[in-house]
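Q: Convert this sequence to structure tokens.
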Amino acid sequence: MKEENNNDLIMTVLKVVIMFIKIAMVLSQLN
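A:
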């Protein structure tokens, strides 16, 4: 496994987590 692939995977996971947190914040504000 190359480090570049690992970095790309980590960046993708971080983006998904950030998006999930933003959605959770919006939902919490609506309630």
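The mean pLDDT is 90.
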